Amino acid sequence: MFQTTINDYKKQHRFPVFSPKAVLFDMDGVLYDSMPNHAVCWQQAMKKFGIRMTADDAYRYEGMRGVETIQLLVHEQQGRTISESEAQTMYDEKARLFGLMPVAPIMPGVRELMDKIQRAGMQIVVVTGSAQKPLIERLHSDFPEFVNRNKIVTAYDVQRGKPAPDPYLMGLSKAGGLQPFEAIVVENAPLGVKAGVAAGIFTIAVNSGPLPDEALRSQGAQWVFADMPALCNAWTTLHSFFENHNSNSY
């Protein structure tokens, strides 16, 4: 299965090799179990502005810049186009509510996985569509030995958020100008998977939310794991396979 998947990936993108040197992690739903909090806040905040948003919608639009999500919903439900500044005002209310929520815990298995990645000599980059500054700041205190401030991509770094490839292309740049075949994306959201695939990067999905696996596979995820511990447990085998495949490619 591994051989076939990687060969298909290389063939699709016409890459001569697959030699990952960095892992690009999404944040919400991957590093932190924060999506339940986000779902509640999205619903409560948007209701104040006459916008309907369900919990499933929060997961479905996860990964987009918040202002883009709001502009899309307003256009769909109210038939009008709003400026980024107006959308930002609405997003600020969502951010305020999020700040009142309980602290989201770190996902089980994340530290162990980061340790394995670092021991393998690979870089760790965080690529998030979030503009929640308190949560972004937590990265520095929660993962000081793994996450470098210069290797974090947020909503403030790009004009087009996920599902556009821009955030992950920025991640490659911050990793030292890597090529797409030199990285792996770890995502939990359909739009995030779509962004990783659009950037030409080998994309692994972790289904930490309520959507079916097919919602991730349909966007191009090469593999789908049930949760972060499952990916962590499989990592040693996966990395050995990546190394063997790379050495056999030359």
TrEMBL record:
Q: Which UniProt keywords apply?
A: Hydrolase
Q: Which InterPro entries match?
A: HAD-like_sf, HAD-like_SPP, HAD-SF_hydro_IA, HAD_2, HAD_sf, PGP-like_dom2
Q: What's the superkingdom here?
A: Bacteria
> Secretion signal: which residues?
none
Q: Reply yes or no: does the keyword Transport apply.
A: no
The GO terms describing molecular function are: sugar-phosphatase activity
Q: Which NCBIfam families match?
A: HAD-SF-IA-v3
Entries under PANTHER family matching the protein: FRUCTOSE-1-PHOSPHATE PHOSPHATASE, GLYCEROL-1-PHOSPHATE PHOSPHOHYDROLASE 1-RELATED
Q: What is this protein called?
A: HAD hydrolase, family IA, variant 3
